[in-house]
Structures are given as structure tokens and as C-alpha cells.
Amino acid sequence: MTKNYVPTKKLADLDLNSELKSFDLNLLSKRGKAISVADYRSETGAETAAILERHALKADHKIALGYAERLQACSDRYNFYMCDDFVDFQTGETFFGFGNLLGCGLKLCPNCTARAAARNRKISLRVLDNTDLQNREHFCFITGGYIVEQEQHRFVTLTMPKIFKSLKVTSKIKKRAWDLFRKLKFTKTYFPAIIKTAEFTVRADRTYHYHLHLLAISYFVPEALIKEAWTSCVRTAFDEFGIEFEATQANVNLKLIYDLHGAVKEVCKYITKSDSWEKIPAEHLLEITEIRRWDRMFEISGRFRQTLAKLKVQDAAAAAALSSFLDNKSTFAEGMARELDYFNTDVITDGELSEASEIAEDSVEISSEKQKRKSWRDLIEEVGLDKYREIFYRQVEYTRNMRKLRLIIKYPDSTFTDLDGRAWDLVEIEAFAQRIASRGIELGI
Fold this sequence. Notes:
The protein has helices spanning 9-13, 30-59, 62-75, 110-129, 167-182, 185-190, 223-240, 260-267, 276-279, 282-289, 303-323, 329-339, 376-383, 385-410, 426-438, and strands at residues 3-5, 80-87, 94-100, 135-140, 145-150, 152-159, 193-202, 208-218, 252-257, 298-302, 416-417. The protein is an alpha+beta fold. The protein has 2 domains: 3-123 and 347-438, no CATH class; 131-269, Alpha-Beta Plaits. The strands form 3 sheets. The chain has a 6-stranded mixed β-sheet with strand order 1-9-6-8-7-10, sandwiched between helices. It has a 3-stranded antiparallel β-sheet with strand order 3-2-11, with helices on one face. A two-stranded antiparallel sheet has the order 4-5. It is globular. 31% of the residues are buried.
């Protein structure tokens, strides 16, 4: 029998879509909640960077040291901005908001993973709102025959049995098991539309509790049938990696969803809890920093993917129609492309700067040609860690100034500060704007 899905009170009340906290957010104002979340992410990111740096120094691991450097820059309190009077251009109302000037894009970064989770929620809600449930004929196990039944939204959790392997290897086994499961005729038949995310926690014995969350459209299907199919796929994946399958079966949990928005928050919350990185063995943590491409942690398939494709076409057509009224179409198109970037659900590289293609003037021995841009890991191996740090902080300065300039142009009547309440240096930003203008660089706003 399926169980009713009821989100936890903490998660349901957490309107900022952030990681759960040890303090009571309900006692704070909305502005206070936002600042508390920003403080928490900054502190957690800095602590994770310090842990990683300590392990990297001990192992003389240059890539991990570079990783820690980037993570620290993203978590720096100067990298956060706050504004009490953002303007909603549709309603004209003002509101409080905060964000990051630079995004490191690293999987260990609480800021960037939170932004990814928000992006995933945005995609999920829009896809769900535009995908209708259907009446379908299927074989019903209760009646023992074919009936026509209304599809429903269901929440499915697929769990991996315990194995004593690193996070990287465990992730590969999980990916193989999922690839086998999603290609089954059983899955395509009973789950015609799926939104999938991956999550893990660290057990006391330093093994990983890896599991997948599925928000799916389906009609009635017994939990035992899903468990049988998932166990078969996990067992095959274990065999291919030469690991003995000692568990009786792989666990599955099936729930009927009544609160769709709450379910989306649960599915798209985080990759792992922020304190997990403190529990991971040093050798596993260093191994993570070498991963250039992660498997899809967020994936849309079936009818949901068809809906997503239609929405892309609709928004592209809308952008083209609007751009016909503008003098500078290329600038508008670039801005629209950034606004629609949340539609990109492909695998992303781990840790490329969001403004990496815009290298600061006088960068050290780095070509500004986009086609010749190298990853930061390659740069460390090529020029060494010290030289890389010099290059990186030039990029950081350029990216932060560019982001500040764009925000000031977009919200000319707003006042911005960093996380400690220090106002931005407008003279410095004006000087940067003049340098940008002299180089003929368009802001694409």
C-alpha cells in the first residue's frame, strides 16, 4: 500500500529553500532569515575549505589546494551582497534580497549547490504545472484485470545497500544501477514521467547512504514490484564492479503525493547535508576534488522531458519576438540566454567560474580567446599553484566588479552592501566601468 506524502514541518516552513538549520528560523523576520542563511552558507563554506586545505597540505595535493582556494573565495563575506530595496519590475514593490558576486560552481560549495537546488525547483515546478495527468488503461493488481485509472503523482525513494567504497566509486555504481533501471520496460510503462535527484549522507562507519528521489507520474503499482526491479538493477551493477551483493534486497519507499510543492522542495533540496564533508575520510575528500564532471544529480525524463522541450521552444520564440523591438539584438539575446540558462539540464563541469571567459586586463600569460580557455585544474598543472593563484584572483576581481556594475545598472536606485553591512565603493566601480567602456565590452543587460 502507498503512504501519504507529508513534508516535514521544518522543510514546509523554510521559504528560503536553503539547508536546514540548528537555530529557529521562525523567530526571525524574513530579512533576518535571509541574513542567517547567508551567514550560515559563508561559515560552512569557509569551514569546508579549511578542512580541505588541511588535508591537501598534508598530502601535498595541488589540485585540492586550488579547489580550497576557489571555495574560500566563493564563501568570502565580501563575495555576498545584500540589498533592502530591490525593485520588482512587475509590481513596483521593493524587497530584500541577497546573492553572490562570484559562483565557484563546486560541489562542495554550499552557496553554489543551494543555487543549483533553487534552479532545479524552478524547472520542476514549471514542468509539473505544464504536464497534465491522464486517464490510462493498465493492468490493476487489485482487480486482476485491465482498468482505466487516473494517473497520480508519486514520490519514490530508491536506496543503495551499504558498500565500503569511496564516494566516487559509490556514485559510479549508483549511476550504473539507475541507468539499468530507467531503461527497463517496467519503468517506462509504470513511470511515464520522472524527475530524479541524487542524495547521500555519511554513516558513522564512514560508508555512504546513497539514494535517489523520484517525483513521478504513475498509476497504481505495488511497492514490492518496484523493489524487485530496483534490486535486480543494483545487483547487476554490483556484479559489474566486482562487489558482492550481501543485502537481501535494495530498499524502496513509495508515497502518494498530496502536497506537490512540498514534494518538489524535498526532491530538490541538496546533494548532501552541509556537515557531511566533515565526516568524509581525507582520501575520499581529495578524490572528489579531482572529479571534472559529475554524473547528473538532477534529471528529467519521459513526458516531463517532452514538456521541457516545448517550454524551451516557447521561450525562445518569445525572446525572438521581443528582440525585434530592440536596437541591439545581440546584447538582448545574450541576456535572455542567461535568463533561460536554468533550462540546461546537461552534465556541467565542476568549478568553472561563471565569468571565466572574461579574463581581466593584464592577466598573466593567459589567452583571452574563448576557444583556448583552459580549465583551472589544467592551469595548476601547467603553471604551478602560485602562478595560478595570481591568475585566479585577477579573475575574481574582474568577475566581482562586473557583477556589481550590472547590478547597479539594473537597480540604479538601490543600495548594496556586503554581508557585514559595508557599502560598495562606488568610485572604484565607476573606474572599472570606464575601463570596460574603453575596451568596448558590452554588459549584455
